[in-house]
TrEMBL record:
Keyword terms, alphabetized: Hydrolase, Metal-binding, Zinc
Cofactor dependency: Zn(2+)
Full protein name: Metallo-beta-lactamase domain-containing protein
UniProt organism field: Candidatus Daviesbacteria bacterium RIFOXYD1_FULL_41_10
InterPro entries: MBL_Glyoxalase_II, Metallo-B-lactamas, RibonucZ/Hydroxyglut_hydro
A GO MF label: hydrolase activity
Pfam families, per database record: Lactamase_B
Taxonomic classification: Bacteria, Candidatus Daviesiibacteriota
Domain of life according to the entry: Bacteria
Amino acid sequence: MQIITLKVGPVRTNCYLLISNGEVGIVDPGDDGDYIIRIIEDKKLKPVWVLSTHGHFDHLLGVNDLVLTYNIPFYMHPDDQFLLERAKSSAEYFKMAEVADIMVDFKPVNEGIVLDVGGTKLKVYDTPGHSPGGICLYSKKDRALFCGDLMFYGGVVGRTDRSYSSREDLKESIKRMLKLPKETIVYPGHGRPSLLSAIHPI
């Protein structure tokens, strides 16, 4: 599987294009849907799904453009639906220009569901903490973990200072992910990737 990282939106969210046999799955299209589409078209890829690792606006504002352009499913954990509904107001609160409402429906995913892109299998893990519906996506074949805002390069962990966050849940989620092979590459929602072996329990 080929992985392309695009920096999107005002907070430079990592949007990942997961490419296998001409198909592409899109993870965390935080904004700039037209830019993501241009890259997909330039590379002559066939989009098959789009997924947000959690419901914060900087991980999903591009879903309108992608779903409406390609008629593909949008996956997200249902426990973050309330954040999806707040995406427009949250984005505008953080002094972004006026943004459109999320007009497309999501398909719920949770622990154990497996997504496919060009024959490459990616398993969903429930990893609450930063938000109630945080998820990770893992490719065993590629030893690649897409973890959203669960954990970051240098051992930094996701924020839990919001009313709906839980440090205990975050701690348990990280502990679970650390059971994956140590050579797994962690692809976070922001910043650079790292080896799982460089991340420690909290």
